[in-house]
Amino acid sequence: MVSPNPRLAAEPNSVLIRESQNTDQQAIADLLHRTFVAELGQYQDDGSGHHVDKFDSKNEYFLAESDGKLVGVIAVHGSPPFSVESRLPAGTLMKDIADHPLEVRLLCVAPGLRFSRIAFRLMASAYRHAVAHGYHELWISGVREQLPMYHKLGFEELGPPVACGNSFFSPMRVKTEGLPAGLRREAMTEKLQPVAPQLLNLLPGPARLHARVQAAAGLAPIYHRSAEFLRLYQEVRSNLHAWQLPAHVALLAGGGTLANDAIAQALLRLPNAKTAPGVILSAGEFGDRLVQHAAAAGLHYEVLRAPWGTCWPLEKLEALLAQRQPAWIWGVHLESSTGVLNPAAALLELVDTEATAVCLDCTSSLGAAEIPLGAALVSSSSGKSLEALPGIAIVAAAPFWVEQIRAHTHANPGTPIWPPSLDLLEAWQAVEPPHTLGSQLLLPLAVSLRHACNPTCAPQRLRNHRALGNYIRQQLRLCGLAVIAPEAFASPAITTFEVPAGLTTLEFLTRARAWGFELAGQSRYLSGRRLAQIATLGEFCEADLGAFFGALRFLS
To answer: Judging by DSSP bridges, how do beta strands 69-77 and 60-66 pair with one another?
Structure first.
């Protein structure tokens, strides 16, 4: 219960608005009893000293707390039956007039604080919940004495007051966009500090895990020389090859960075590596990181760059190929910094793949986009679109190029010795991992390749990724936000976009977390450009993201 008196009392500095926890049940019931039983007489007093709401099992409670003491409550729920419907005029049904309603209930503030802003802040938390979950209207049973307050909040009456115990209540509603601007601003600021909800993982890694993969990650380790482990090892290699990777698959303890270090070591050992410099294609952060790998390995190369956010400069490459034949060409398939899916198939069509080793960094694309056939070397990792735990580096090679590297290595005693952790020749040939590979990483990858990322379901999986990517880009543009990748080269699984005007990237990520969504953007190459990312590396559908875009539309 709150007072319509316009005078505002000072609000204690310590008042915190938060979501309820299980341990709050008794305090909530006590405050509800004092307000709705003892004071308003809405419910009969059973002598217990506390009141449990009839919708308690489905209510979401937001609490006002001062110095550890509960001083205010508001509850919301969005599924029928709704108590407010019983107060509508005879013959009026909510289903006929309501548009995705959220019922607001039990708004009350402790005596002595009813002239403060606590009620306003509690209502703001209900509004934020409505926006975050895609509700279009707020409905409430407004006690007759408080109708002026609800009118100021934008609520309109839908019928005359109806008696309930010793009090009278009017059915009222307001569309979310009809709430006062001040209330909307309050809801979108960091003044509200609810207990963080379980965040929906929209990061470009680690991926959102299938339940079976999560369960597998918690099992006891398996000895890495046991028959059981070796069966898993061979199963994973076989299933990765079925995802259109080249035939020889190496699994190393590490991530995408280590996989690319291993590729750089392999390129050093190509027969013509010293006489025919390689080419690196770059149009983003991770293309530039290939340059770092190549420089650290001592490779000879030329860099062909395109503007940040575009695709590979194939026109420049075509002009270069008319002049000379490079030993190798290396590029990032899905440039995750920009959300660009580079045209790997077009690249392979330009190149004589028996004279030039085409290398693809498929760290983010493997499992989310088609990997074209014909590449000499392909790198990836377990913790991205393959939806397993990070920690396994994947390097696959075509048989022709494995033989080229092996023959050159054996024919040239002066060839540098492979670093043990990067020895691909040994890893490609071995029936077991040459070095320890934890089963806690291998088993989740095996389970993901059996279920979430089963290669036999690849066509449908890739279609789903494309459809969801199209939906995300469409919704971002409807919110007035620019998508970085050109539509013709947009990634199906990672979308990079400009954050709303007036916000830094980190401020926007904080807002998104408050709505229940974990996005990426902390890296300097994103935050410095006011960019953020949505990645759907896992099982997602449009409904998972509806609340995010609902909140984003209001913010924008």
So the answer is: antiparallel
